[in-house]
Amino acid sequence: MKKLIINLAPTGMIPTKEITPHIPIHPQEIIKDVLHCSSMGASMIHIHARDSKGLPTYHKEIYAKIISGIREKRPDLIIVASTSGRNFPEFKQRSDVLQLEGDLKPDMASLTLSSLNFMQSASVNSPDMIMQLAKEMKEKGIKPELEVFDMGMVNYAKYLIKKGLIDPPYYFNILLGNIASAQSTLQEAGLILSSLPQNSIVSLTGLGASQKEMNGLGVIFADGVRVGLEDNIWLSKEENKLATNSNLVERVIKIANSLNRPIASANEVRELLGLDN
Amino acid sequence: MKKLIINLAPTGMIPTKEITPHIPIHPQEIIKDVLHCSSMGASMIHIHARDSKGLPTYHKEIYAKIISGIREKRPDLIIVASTSGRNFPEFKQRSDVLQLEGDLKPDMASLTLSSLNFMQSASVNSPDMIMQLAKEMKEKGIKPELEVFDMGMVNYAKYLIKKGLIDPPYYFNILLGNIASAQSTLQEAGLILSSLPQNSIVSLTGLGASQKEMNGLGVIFADGVRVGLEDNIWLSKEENKLATNSNLVERVIKIANSLNRPIASANEVRELLGLDN
Predict the structure, then answer these.
(1) Cβ contact B188–A151 (<8 Å)
(2) Do A119 and B126 touch (CB under 8 A)?
(3) Can you give the pTM of this predicted structure?
(4) Which residue among A113, A126, A150 places its CB closest to the CB of B121?
(5) Within an 8 Å CB–CB cutoff, is residue A120 touching chain B?
(6) What SS3 state is found at B202?
(7) Burial, A174: exposed, middle or buried (Cβ in 10 Å; 0-12, 13-18, 19+)?
(8) Given pLDDT bands bounded at 50, 70 and 90, which one contains residue B85?
(9) CB burial string A13-32: b at 16+ within 10 A, e below
């Protein structure tokens, strides 16, 4: 069995301390969660930065603090920076983190493959913006994390491949269960997984309550899973139990153990994705 | 076999006279195409207005000219007005056509169920905008034409149903083949059709070259098809043959005849959808 890639998304843009006290917001909190979860088996880290008020920010200086704090202890981990445009629509803002250099440069950065609606608002990623971000990543040697929320985003990835804007192997993150995107069903997951281009490495997650099931499906049928409080704050909503990032990673590890699936180390994932050591 | 609903989309927002001389732009041209195509069997008419320069416009005065011209000859036809926000983002603009009253009021209006990317640009339909448009339509007694480009938009329709914002029977238009949405494959069409809520009446089309195949699939498996130059300007791209709206409707009629499927009259569709006679 191929080794499982565990991609941790510890923070995201939405959860606040009011929503869950377990959400890491301050760089030091994020670094602490990341180091603990990676000691358990997380190899890729999808980070979002927050400002001193706890609000999402695009400023590369805050990303730099998080990245240097992680790399001081674990230079092997694969760091994926968010380029989300939900709160910052301009290219200059979204690509700020791509300007970090040397030891601070992220290994990868998120590239959402279309515009979509979340529960409260639209997330606009125009064709031009996607292509500009892809070009900038290619120029900087930062590998895109291709974010797919619905069928058509896979098709758009194929279009970017045809245009030479992204290079193999393609790392896809399939996020199911958003209100206006594909749902966490076996049919939808199956159709999306089966439509990926050759040379794809794919990670699966469910948003909210379906994170557990989609992580389970990912352990069985995908190269990896994405897990963390960005996508789901509950360990058990029925029992009103909030999760920590460690709880969620632990659950994935238990599923993998129960299915006898080994966990990939960060260096093994680097090799698989063709990233520098 | 249930009678087939033919929904004609004669104009759209993109084609110009430079792209195809057959595109009806001026109200008189649109009226002429509509009357001819409805004499062949089109019962629903999805209209977009253009200004005197041929550019898309939201102004209800131009919609009024088209609607009165059609109704003078064919008051039975079901008229669906576009509320597209691709060029006009404000609610006041998008809902302008919903303010027409009496004999000028459209029977239905388009409601696209999420934000999405087309080839050149994003089409932003935020959750707030969708809900505002749905409320306005409900208040005015205008039935929504639910536009679905990808899986998740069906889920959002279910959310609107739960919120009481749209009423049965639900009229869905499934448009496949957009660059960043679901493609014109049997799997994707099948999954979307099978995920529709109960009490749905569904029409199918493919954008561009796949219009023919998706119309064929619609004749076999759906309640209706959408057809017209808005979605596809070619009769045969290989032979470099541009289509007219009549050509495209004729092709649907031939497919239906060959499969022995009868065509629904406008009054039969009115009854099916619960629209006033």
Answers:
(1) yes
(2) no
(3) 0.96
(4) A126
(5) yes
(6) strand
(7) buried
(8) confident
(9) bbbeeeeeebbbbebebbbe
Is A145 touching B (CB cutoff 8 A)?
A: no
Does the distance separating the beta carbons of B180 and A152 come in below 8 Å? yes
Distance from CA of A120 to the nearest CA of B (A): 6
Q: How far is B159 from chain A (nearest CA, A)?
A: 8
pLDDT over 90, % of chain B = 97
Q: Is the CA virtual torsion B118, B122, B123, B126 positive or negative?
A: positive
Residue-by-residue pLDDT tens, chain A, 277 positions? 799 999 999 999 999 999 999 999 999 999 999 999 999 999 999 999 999 999 999 999 999 999 999 999 999 999 999 999 888 889 999 999 999 999 999 999 999 999 999 999 999 999 999 999 999 999 999 999 999 999 999 999 999 999 999 999 999 999 999 999 999 999 999 999 999 999 999 999 999 989 999 999 999 999 999 999 999 999 999 999 999 999 999 999 999 999 999 999 999 999 999 998 7
Domains present along chain A, CATH in parentheses: 5-273 (3.20.20.70)
Residue A132 sits at the chain B interface (C-beta within 8 Å):
no
CB B148 within 8 A of CB B166: no
Residues of A in contact with B182 (CB under 8 A): 150-152
DSSP string, A89-124: -SHHHHTGGGG--GGGS-SEEEEE-S-EE-SSSEE-
Report how far residue A109's alpha carbon sits from residue B265's, in angstroms, rounded to the nearest whole number. 54
The two three-digit tokens of residue B27, written as one number: 């109200």
The answer to whether the CB of A15 falls within 8 A of the CB of A23 is yes
**Contact present, A233 and A19 (Cβ < 8 Å):** yes
Q: Are B199 and B170 in contact (CB under 8 A)?
A: yes
Interchain CB distance below 8 Å, B117 and A156: yes
Q: How many CB pairs under 8 A join A and B?
A: 116
Element (H, E) at A173: strand A170-176
In this prediction, residue B86 carries a pLDDT of 80
Reported ipTM: the value is: 0.94
For chain B, say whether A172 makes contact (Cβ under 8 Å).
no
First to last CA, chain B: 24
Residue A29: its pLDDT value, please?
A: 98
